[in-house]
Design a protein that fits this description.
Layout (H helix, E strand, L loop, with lengths): L1 H23 L3 H16 L6 H26 L9 H34 L1
Helix pairs in contact: 1-2, 1-4, 2-3, 3-4
Length: 119
Amino acid sequence: MNKFIGILFAIACIATAAVSNSMMGAGLWFWIIIATGFIVAISQFFPLLRGIGSGLAFILSVFSLIAILLGLLAATIGGSFNMDSSTALLLFLFLVIAVLGFIVSSLYTRSMRANESYQ
């Protein structure tokens, strides 16, 4: 299950980076999102790296939630809520990253607690 969620997380990161690239160009966050997605996906196949991958997934999930809140706040500037479809898609993909990242980190935390109680 961890591997499947990790691969879905990487796909969501690639999709988010692609939409972000079409809107704003390839900047620093473009590369950070792609690198984090690949690291999280690869780390699910190596037990020693799962902690690093789940930590990065959690950090990117927190940043995604912040991006969603700031995007929604920016859409209200001018007195009325106005958001085009590409921005809405970008915020939706950030939501997908946030949900999948929190799932990856909670699965890792749950497996660590199970290992501690087993020993």
